[in-house]
Amino acid sequence: MEASLRELLSEGELIEFYRQMVLCREFEESCAEQYSRGEITGFLHLYSGQEAVAVGCTAALHKNDYILSAYRDHAQAIVRGADPKRVMAELFGRATGICKGKGGSMHLFAPELNFMGGYAIVGGQFPIAVGLSWASQLREEDRVTACFFGDGSMNQGTFHESLNWARLWELPMLFVCENNFYGIGTEVHRASAQSALHRRTCGYDIPSEKVDGMDVIAVYQATKRAAEWVRERQRPYFIEAVTYRFRGHSMSDPAKYRSVSEHEVWKSRDPIPNLSRRLLAEGIASEAQLDEIRDRCTAQVEEAVQYAADSPWPEDGEVWEDIYV
Amino acid sequence: MSEMTYRDAINLALKEEMRRDRSVVVYGEDVALYEGAFKVTRGLLSEFGEERVRDCPISENTIVGVAVGAAMGGVRPVAELMTVNFALLAMDQIVNHLAKVRYMFGGQLTVPVVIRMPGGGGSQLGAQHSQSLESYFMHCPGLRVAYPAAPADAKGLLKTAIRDNNPVIFLEHELLYNSKGEVSEDPEFLVPFGKAAVLREGSAATLVGYGRMSILCLQAAQLLEKEGVSCEVIDLRTLCPLDGETMLASVLKTGRAVVVEECWRSAGLGGDIASRIYERCFDTLLAPVKRISGLDVPMPYSRKIEKLCIPQVEGIVQGVRDLLAQSY
Q: Would B147 disulfide with which of A6, B107, B211, B308, CB 3.0-4.6 Å?
């Protein structure tokens, strides 16, 4: 028997979880459309299906905690507070983009929100997260560094080097593995000798747990406990959020390595209906309210697309800017 | 002024900058308790404590990545890679992250990082511990690259590097650590980046070097003087930014250039420098630009054949003689 949602969170917080997940889904589906129209080009990795992880984790962190992610980073940035208009403009390659059109989909960055970047070399963000956390330790800031990454990156050397380092230097870090079971087309058991990924931290004496990454409430609760533990003990912790991407690795991947039946099972666990069912069942929101939220998100994303399309391209001289101070 | 070694000059620069700015921290493999594989960080742990002088695991890629993150978080890290050879394990963080984060994030951050790396050949350390990789770093936009020859420059350039808000690859030559020279003890003594030093004036040929190669150029010029050949010696001091003006002004004056590089010849920085000279001085050159380079071979151990692979003073002297014998 599931606990009543009201015992865990306020109605406002629960509805906000729903709104954020819907906003991310609408944003990502709109990106797919803009990609097919040729407005967005390059690599595009969509987050659809994984929303509960970004939303649940981010809600459980403090505003001054650092967040880093990999290249599937739109939702992480938007949930953290990045303006969808400026994220969309970045994907359109426009001067008004969050990184002036120089980063693109995989390299969002918003230091004013303590969103410290999307990184596109698998596992590249681990050492940088360690460095940020060390800086907070040296500067005696009350700050947890949350480092998001996929299951595939756990086979990179940086994962092992960084976990060892984080434990050795007693850094307040939260490692969040988004296990969507596939590193592009290679299923986790074909790449990791230990496919229970959370068990791989024992060599570094870092406690870990596995959480249902399709359930935003479960993710929120686990992260809240974990972040408090990290803050109190000033030591790293590891969460494996088990999730699924509803689309291929990127827009060029039809995901033929996954069976239709597997996909259907996970679709039935979609984090958005998963939450809305409970909101309706417990009378926290009505159908009409949820519809209205969805419509508002759709409109917000349409506005973002319009903003991006209307935005100017970068000036040619911009290529030489920002290399050196 | 006081006479000190290249090693002590670097050590003094670190101490002065750590005293001046509490956000400067030093870490690396064996830099604290052991005081550095080359004893460059001697006395740092006892003066500044474990918070600001830290030993870390043998994880080169993470050493560099930690510097990137620490800089983002408001610290000014000076990381040591025990030797430049191990930088190859860290090329992902150096090239894909350190050099690029400012640009790809639209200029929203600065990365005040110094990565110190001893390197170079000539100590019979074999193929994996004798490399000169300066061209690798010089090739990558986003990095500053310094390579001092003289103790005074080692101090002044390192202090500039630590105060610079750009990532700096700071190369030190292992065979220069015991070399001595006059060094300013002024804690505000800085040597600017992008300003080559004219180590010696001359009229018949310009010898261009960096790091230990500048010292060899100077020794060659002294020998050539006895033969009545007057050479100008340019020590580049920083490879990025590169002071083209000083070098080209010299070549325009002498009409001849010898570029000495310790790295491998193929795609080595000497080719880049030679092309800059051709582009600007073609009409006034009295002979083709001469390149004296490391041989395109993995470094052998045996001292008899190791020295064949690294530019030597005699080779530079002969190179100048050959150049003078040629004329358009």
A: B211
